[in-house]
């Protein structure tokens, strides 16, 4: 639309509400309080908020990329060091959640490959199937048979027993 309109051709209809005319010399208290509120409360709060947002924009923190420091394993904790036991347990729980997500991601990739390939899924998705088999075997070796209430101590004992069985099998094979 052109900027210079022909106002005579497109006349604005007159308003039906008459304009308010002041008949008093005393200022309206509502506008006075709105102005005072704007300068006393709203302006400083807005300034502080914008300053905080500028500072946060400089130092972005992505909570979903949080990296925890690795703590000693339960086997490395000293006897009676309960804080180390607690940290090792928390580390084990995080590792278990990460391993569960890895298995789930590989399973989703295999499902997507099967959906994409259709009848040729056995031929074209063999790599994904092998990867899923390796990941689930590793997960089962580490966390299998622990149940819902498994913890770092029972997982460590399971690994210890598995290593002892492997050692016995190796000794029997060598004899």
Automatic annotation (TrEMBL):
Keywords: Electron transport, Membrane, Mitochondrion, Mitochondrion inner membrane, Respiratory chain, Transport. This is NADH dehydrogenase [ubiquinone] 1 beta subcomplex subunit 10. The keyword Nucleotidyltransferase does not apply. Accessory subunit that is involved in the functional assembly of the mitochondrial respiratory chain complex I. Complex I has an NADH dehydrogenase activity with ubiquinone as an immediate electron acceptor and mediates the transfer of electrons from NADH to the respiratory chain. It comes from the Eukaryota. It is a peripheral membrane protein. It comes from Caloenas nicobarica (Nicobar pigeon). Its main location: mitochondrion. GO terms for cellular component: mitochondrial inner membrane; respiratory chain complex I. Signal peptide: none annotated. Belongs to the complex I NDUFB10 subunit family. InterPro entries: NADH_UbQ_OxRdtase_su10, NDUFB10. It is found in: Mitochondrion inner membrane. Pfam families: NDUFB10.
